[in-house]
Amino acid sequence: MCDATSKTISTLSEATTPLLPLLPLPPLPLRHHLQKYSLPNDYSTNVIAYSPGGTIIAACYVKNTRSSTVNIINLIDGKKKELPFNHAVRAICFSADGCQLLVGGTNKRVTIFDMETFEKLCDIKRHHTVISIACSRDGRKFAIGDYGGTLGLFRNTNYANDIEKLKSFNCESNVYTVCFSMNSKYVVGGGNAKKIFVFNTKTFELAAKLNFSERILSSSFSPSGEFLAVAGDDTNVTIIETKNWTFHRVFRRSADVESVSFSSDSHEIAAGGSDKMVFIYNAKHGGIVSKIECDGHVSAVAFSPLLGEDHLAVGGYYSSWNTYTANKHRQVDCIKEINITKSSLPSKINSSLGRQLRLGIIKRMPGNVDTYFPSWVTSYATGQREGVDSKGCGPGMWINSEIIRCTSCAGIEAPMTAMLFNNNNRDWREAYLLRLSTKSCKLMGVSSAKVMVVLLTTALFNSNSCLDEIDVAIKNGMKLIILRCEDDYTDSDDKWIPKWQDDDGIKKKTDFMLKRQRVVRFIDEQTSIPKEGNTIFSQLSAIDTFLIELRRRL
């Protein structure tokens, strides 16, 4: 049975913008070429996928029904890894945290790989060839579409050991495309049945059914969650409003459209097909923004998910796949800036460098610090090295500024951090803690911070200021993200060891010990990024994972 919002509607009858006659196109600006990736002889590219953080890209090369290679490229350091298969791979997808890669194809199964070791974690067997895979943004579910017309919905908490099949949905014929809404509430499937099926992932009910004139080959939700793009053999790119599952706009093409992808800001949508062209459309207002002329049939397009990055990857039935940008002056990939290396840590941080680091953060902040109430904060310890760093300066200060630089490159607002305040301002701690107080911010008519990012170092556990900050965050129900910056800090018993003064009474000692116990227990129960045994310097994917988690929690 369908719920109250179920509907069957027609593209032609209910599109808010009618189809226009197909006219010769005026001259259009070309996308500027960035990078070419050549393929082995007789291979073509059928799938391209970015990791959710945008730092890794995977492309599938297919030679025939018996040979495929998934080429994985780290866009930060350029390192490559090839995963060979003795069957045709038809679908690839990264998990929500970017730590796993799901691969499916003619072997009738989905294989899940660990992105750090590239070891196989497990196989999910299906009855038919797998042709589409999608992971929900909340990281709790994934979906598989196959030639049998089944959309399988799975729940996972651990890709290696804890996968549960939730539901099998009947999509009537081959399911060429599956995707999740941004809030993970809906999963969409489409294919040979010439329909788009929208299912509720909690109630498992059919929320909407949209009819088309030809088979569906590709679909994509906008990052804003406002639109769903659908394309296929009807030569159209159809934009659907997700609020009521009604048609918003139709872009007409002269050939089949095999792949669509929204830009990270949701303003543009790329569509490639059998006419050897990729057109980039304005998703909201209509019109063609630019085009890419390719060497063959286009079967895969993918925009970088990194906010502020306009890079577009394109592949198909020709001897290479390529990346493009709209800005010819921007030849340096922004993604390369999202990286922190320990070798870059200054051997000495004096007062002059400390001021530079502080000013660098202030420049990323809109307006004045006194009126700035961002949605997240950082907590860090300076970690001054005796005889090396100037007073009030240290490695923690540099790591904090580097984390903020990376988030800024990813299009995330600057956080509230102690470095925004002048050290001579005695009230800076009160101003910082004010941003954490839900009650105080509500009385002021402003929003309090939702997330605290804690930089885990040895120095953190010697800083009573950090102890106070984390305690206030816990009391106000903030979400904490623990970034492991060192991996040799002390055991629980040695964290925040009290240093009593002669005049400290029993009440002050009791209050401190209760606060210490509360914070230590909370931190010990959290899963850090990366996990114990690695740091943000030793595990290259750690920053990628952090950016994904920060976006999700904000």
Question: What percentage of the residues does DSSP assign to strands (E)?
Answer: 35-45%
Number of helices: 8
The CATH architecture of the largest domain would be 7 Propeller
How many strands, what sense, and barrel or not for the largest sheet? 5 strands, mixed
Query: Rg, please?
Result: 26 Å
Summarize the structure.
This protein is α+β, with helices and mostly antiparallel strands and 554 residues long. It has eight helices and 32 strands.
Structure description:
- This protein has 554 residues and is of the alpha+beta class.
- It contains eight helices and 32 strands.
- Helix 2 (351-363) packs parallel to helix 3 (395-409) and helix 6 packs across helix 7.
Describe the structure using short key phrases:
8 helices; alpha+beta; 554 residues; four-stranded antiparallel sheet; Methylamine Dehydrogenase, Chain H; elongated; Rossmann fold; 2 domains; disordered N terminus
